Amino acid sequence: MRLCAAVSVNVLFAAALNFGQATSSFGQATSTPAQASPAAVGHGAFPVKVTKTLDSSKLKEDNSIEVETAGSFKLPDGTLVPKGSKLIGHVTVAKARSKGDSDSELTLVFDKLNILGGKQLALRGMVRAIFPPGEEAAGPNMSTMGTSAGGSAGGAALGAASQAGGVGITDTHNDTPKPQAVADVKATGVQGMHDLQLENGVITSKGKNVKLDGGVRMIVQADILG
Description:
Helices cover 10% and strands 38% of the residues. It is mainly β. The chain has one domain. Strands 1-3-6-7-8-17 form a six-stranded antiparallel beta barrel. It has a three-stranded mixed β-sheet with strand order 5-4-9, with no helix packed on it. Strands 2-16 form a two-stranded antiparallel ribbon. It is globular. The two termini are 36 Å apart. The model is unreliable at 3-34, 137-157 and 159-178 (pLDDT under 50).
């Protein structure tokens, strides 16, 4: 009897381990089951869109901010997070470049996800990539978060939401369409934008301020908390 129980435990452990390895790359989650908070029910990356200009010269520490999801995805319990759901966060650093400073800086942390329909979830998120404004692909591209064997929360990975498609934008100098950067959930850093840098969630600029206009797309890396 003891031998059978030991074999069963080993089989379940191996299944959970294999699942965790498979899902950790889905949505490009950077945290591992061992690193995730015990309360986390999923982790991964999804695209959002800035709806109101974020300017480091006008924002202050602890100011509340809001962006919206740029696609739809499902959580491990089957909850649908529709495109346009609100991601709420706050400013931890907002600095305009002044005399003697080398950079202006803006750091954002996300705390809550308000799902269309009324449900609110706690989360812990940071900006992982930034893209210029662009038209979004028509229709949702829904992905699903998985759960590991035995209901373990640590192996869950957040599915990618719909990505902004590779549509053309117009060059203001010669009206020639140029390839539009795609908001790929696998990306890191600043893509297709000048004068901005991003490292470990900290956005900096050599200019007088960090300014993210409405329509700017970001990839947010997040742990969904229970």
